[in-house]
Amino acid sequence: MARLASQANLQYIPTQDRIRRIIKSYLEFPLKGTTCLDPCCGPGDALLEICPEGNFLFGMELHTARALEAKQKRFVKVLAGPFENSIISNRAFGLAFVNPPYDWVAGGKMRYEEVFLNRVIQYIAPKGILCYIVPKSLFEYRGQIVLKTILENFSDVRICKYPDPEYQEFNQVVVFGVKKPLERITASPEWWEEKIALVTQGKLPELQALNDPIYAIPQINPGFIRVFKVTHYDEMLAAAESKTMSFLEKLKPKNGIKNLTAPYYLDKALLALLAVGGYIDGKMPGHFLSGRYENHEVSNTEIDMETGEESHVTRKTSSSVFYILTKEPGENGSRIREIR
User: Fold this and answer.
1) Which CATH architecture has domain 3-230?
2) What are 238-264's pLDDT values in tens digits?
3) CA–CA separation, 3 vs 84, rounded Å?
């Protein structure tokens, strides 16, 4: 079955709630946070639960509705489209959490679990951590190739089977490893058969909650990835963002809007500094920031404290209005925020 049909038929197995909590106990995150990738993030719940606040989450999801759901959560950026169509900076992530589609690539010569593993290897930074969730059957189909790829690219490898009752229901295993320079491995067919049999026969340690984490995730590029995009047009995603784009077109910023991103949250004091520096009306490099002045009259009734007489006073005042892009859409679906 083709992958899109497979997804449509709900061959989508999100990481189970209890398994997320157990996996989290294996991982120690840096105090200042790190940059984390989930290339098959679904609505984003798994990575959100595994990674504490203060870490920077990047996701990708083939199913557009789930991608849009993840976009509204604590992610720096979520791409909608096939992982094979992504363009991502190499060695950019401290953690890669990978629960890929379980399916054959068209033609039946390779599985999508392999495609995701081979691609994600290049995105993990040196000493970064891989958490790879796959069915036991992957090692029955492609055991030596997959295991060889893991052992050549990762050290301190642990393969654990799900605890029961999840293992009886899903037959899934979790692979942990620390990214290392490529190291070619040569072994006899008997050695490979022995290692693969441990997985296929379920002779593995059981995934269980730990009091002390085993894997220390390095602090890598906190919040910044130079390239993170997908060469895939999604009509549903484009429609969801049309309100933002149409609003930007009406404001007519002086620089192009197609490659703009959302800045960090700007309070009034920061906006005043930007206005003084001339960074308004679309001039803010790489971001969108538009501003204008509004003049209006304010009428007040004043009382003379000595005579008690009333007088009506009209004064002209002005105020500044700014429009910025935000990372998450508001209630109306737009990422435009007005600040006065």
Assistant:
1) 3-Layer(aba) Sandwich (3.40)
2) 565 555 555 555 554 444 444 445 444
3) 12
